[in-house]
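Ticket reopened. Same input as before:
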Amino acid sequence: MHFPAPLPLQGGTSIADYTLMYETYGVLNADHSNAVLVCHALNASHHVAGVYEEADGTKNVGWWDNMIGPGKPVDTDRFFVIGVNNLGSCFGSTGPMHINSASGKPYGAAFPVVTVEDWVHAQARLADALGIGQFAAVMGGSLGGMQAMAWSMLYPERIRHSVVIASTPKLSAQNIAFNDVARQAILTDPDYHGGDYYAHGVVPRRGLRVARMVGHITYLSDDDMAEKFGRTLRNGDYQFGFGIDFEIESYLRYQGDKFSEYFDANTYLLITKALDYFDPARTFGGDLTKALANTQAEFLLVSFSTDWRFAPERSREIVQALVNNKRKVAYAEIDAPHGHDAFLLEDPRYINVVRAYYDNVWKEIEAGKFDNKARA
Amino acid sequence: MHFPAPLPLQGGTSIADYTLMYETYGVLNADHSNAVLVCHALNASHHVAGVYEEADGTKNVGWWDNMIGPGKPVDTDRFFVIGVNNLGSCFGSTGPMHINSASGKPYGAAFPVVTVEDWVHAQARLADALGIGQFAAVMGGSLGGMQAMAWSMLYPERIRHSVVIASTPKLSAQNIAFNDVARQAILTDPDYHGGDYYAHGVVPRRGLRVARMVGHITYLSDDDMAEKFGRTLRNGDYQFGFGIDFEIESYLRYQGDKFSEYFDANTYLLITKALDYFDPARTFGGDLTKALANTQAEFLLVSFSTDWRFAPERSREIVQALVNNKRKVAYAEIDAPHGHDAFLLEDPRYINVVRAYYDNVWKEIEAGKFDNKARA
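Engineering reply: fixed in the latest deploy. New output:
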């Protein structure tokens, strides 16, 4: 969907016009009360569920297909689910590789740094266009959870439930440090060309590959890595060179290679900045309770015990701030071995918590109970 | 000291001849019973204590000067302390930047991959040359601790005490993963030139910089980073670009820049491989107790509560294996906030544990009690 009006951005500039790619599942009901917005994390897209075809004809499954679909926890026989690709991403929505109408050339480094809040404002225009005044729920994991949080603060009257999974109220110094290593790997790759590599017919693949490798380590738990890879050698013995000795090396390099072939380096820079900048308490003197004071939604938060990127403690801070505001909040801390990545995986306790929550959201809709002002 | 005889290496090759740079402190006593060997970790050298002058005239303090010196825990008024730079390093001992007598050119990528065990064999020849049949102690932190452990297994009769600080019996998959990210950053830097960058008059500075940044994150604890840097902004507000926003970014980039100016990239590759390969239990079917069965030394182990690189659990595995072998072992787990780097810092409990231990080592020497065969 194309939006011809300029979108003012948190950074002080604006984007003249933009397109958002989105995908929907299920049917919007008569009173438009069953819409669920799914927000993506770093490297995902609007393809949240089902099977879709890539440009090259290969078929892929949506990134949250275990969670969303007919009969699944977010049941598309009940809900009208929208997956949306964010501004600055590289899966169809306006991003750095698209033509900047002001210059006639790809944006490249000229693409503005966008924030979680900017994304939410852009998504709100999509909701307007689709005739959705109020979402039954906005949900997401990790960076997607930040968007679900931001929705509850920026458009409190437009969201009945906020589902925030494996997220955090703000990145720690260590989180930022890892993001900056990734950015430095890209920015110092000679093929980066100041962000305008499109014109040179190259991509900063080496930097992007290293960025993905270091990111990937933070998505897995130490225990899970030990379990999956341990010190298993690829060829039975040490090779005494700098090729592949250990399976973990093979795995990470493969992940890095694959990623560097489909993901845009400028997008990686932008999305890590959006992560770093998210800090809703910042304009409230660091007081998260105050930041969440104007929310009206009910909340579900989920965290995972071995997630050292956004540890359970971080979710508990959000829960505490919501409790301080007397908001209705459900919180599940899942004892799962898979680290941050657990939010994309199949743990039945996790899946069932989300299912039970959405069953109740559905009951409200069936009962016609969806004026959240009454609850505020 | 130059060693003209070839040194056979674990990788199956050998090095034709080599030089080891070393520095000594204190005086070797009449019966040569007061020698202490200090082994360095990734980026350090033979300059363990006191003030020394760099090639450019700047003066620096030894990397363990808080631990070693007159009146210090390892008291150089008592002990004859030797700091030795390892093979493959870049501080004077034979390494990749030195001329390979076989080719007449710098070794570069032709420098053999060396192991902790190779280093220990090379150090043993230095001990021979210095007339030291048996060390009062061999000590080190991190990778240095691995050398102290290897000494106790390879030359059990030549070491009375093994002091192993912030170390591990082997790297985890996560440890290896971080090392491989660092190596990939270097190996894919266009200035790496297959390891023979000396001939091109360049160094793979970008890769080395990223390698150091990611390494540095693993040396600090999450809490310590939060305490020191948190989300403090360099210029008071978000800059909406890819320059420096947060103090942690400034700090890490500075560390990376500095490191890339003095450290050799080939050495970085070699030393991370030595770390990855250390696994003395490997030839004993993974049984660390069996691997340590032939040791005769007494042991001091120290770990730090917030060290997530080589966590206390890893030291406890060593302690348990030593206890299983009925070895005499002291173990201190220091509740310190500084992560892996704590082994280089000033925590008084840590310093005092080491002091007390060496006081006892000294008492043994004064009493003439230093035939460790009697204890085996």
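Residues 32 and 311 of chain A are 36 Å apart (CA to CA). Chain A has ten helices and 17 strands. Please confirm and we'll close it.
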